[in-house]
Design a protein that fits this description.
2% strand; mainly alpha; 69% helix; two-stranded antiparallel sheet; 272 residues
């Protein structure tokens, strides 16, 4: 009878732990360590006591929420240590880490902590990540794919800077631009990656911004000119541009008149 009652109890405990862990991954990804445990319990649909029963502290729950992804980074880096093209692989690995981490504040916080003891046993896993990244860096440098004057401290600093750029970028930012800049800073010689651009979108945005502000461009210098409420729309930003345009029109008419006179003279000569 005791075994019959205990089995469902263990199943419920596993289910509750999985619910708490799923809710924690989502909450920590959004807000990092700032999220309260009560919010995680609410998302999981359990009481705060259930959370503490499985995870004695917020740090322990945070560690459990991020450890799988960091272990995946470590395992992947170790598998790539002996590839035949270590230079390109090093840059692709960095780009993948940034892409998978940038929108996850929990992972950003964990990587920023590095080998510190803030997150308990996962500190050793974070040091493993740094060591595996160091090996990829060394292989890439030996193959001539990465400049020789950088070390793992530089790479970690650039990685964190890139994560910060991606997290702070606005909705109109071009994905991958920061990573391209970081990779170029690590390449030897004059190899430059073509940066992702959005010229067409920028042109549309500039045009839409002018329309929203009821502006046109000065016909002489292009400076935005606010349209008049009544009467004819303004063509110039001021008197100087208006006079400049007038002088240009006068010169153009003079050249046209001289050309016309020349054509008449030539025609007259031919009739002689």
């Amino acid at each position: 009878m005791t075994e019959t009652v205990a089995a469902p109890s263990r199943a419920d405990a596993r289910r509750n732990r999985a619910l708490v862990l799923t809710a924690a991954r989502s909450a920590f990804a959004e807000r990092g360590m700032d999220v309260p445990l009560g919010e995680i319990a609410r998302r999981a649909g359990v009481g705060a006591g259930t959370v503490y029963r499985h995870f004695p502290s917020k740090e322990a729950l945070f560690e459990a929420a991020v450890v799988d992804r960091i272990r995946l980074f470590v395992d992947t880096a170790r598998e790539l240590a002996d590839v035949p093209d270590p230079g390109p692989v090093f840059f692709r690995f960095l780009a993948s880490v940034v892409r998978l981490t940038a929108r996850n504040k929990a992972l950003c916080d964990a990587l920023e902590a590095g080998g510190e003891q803030r997150f308990g046993t996962s500190a050793g896993l974070l040091r493993d990540f740094t060591d595996a990244l160091r090996i990829l860096l060394t292989r890439a440098q030996e193959a001539g794919g990465v400049r020789q004057d950088v070390d793992i401290i530089d790479v970690r600093a650039l990685l964190l800077a890139c994560l910060s750029m991606e997290r702070r970028s606005g909705p109109d930012a071009v994905p991958g631009r920061g990573m391209a800049l970081v990779c170029d800073s690590l390449r030897p010689g004059q190899h430059v990656t073509k940066l992702p651009v959005a010229d067409e979108r920028k042109g549309r945005n500039d045009h839409n911004d002018r329309n929203a502000r009821n502006e046109t461009g000065c016909a002489a210098c292009g400076t935005p000119v606010t349209a008049a409420r009544t009467g004819r729309p303004a063509r110039y930003c001021g008197g100087a541009c208006r006079q400049k345009a007038h002088r240009e029109r006068t010169r153009t008419r003079s050249r046209d008149d001289a050309s016309a006179a020349g054509r008449v003279s030539v025609t007259g000569l031919k009739r002689l």
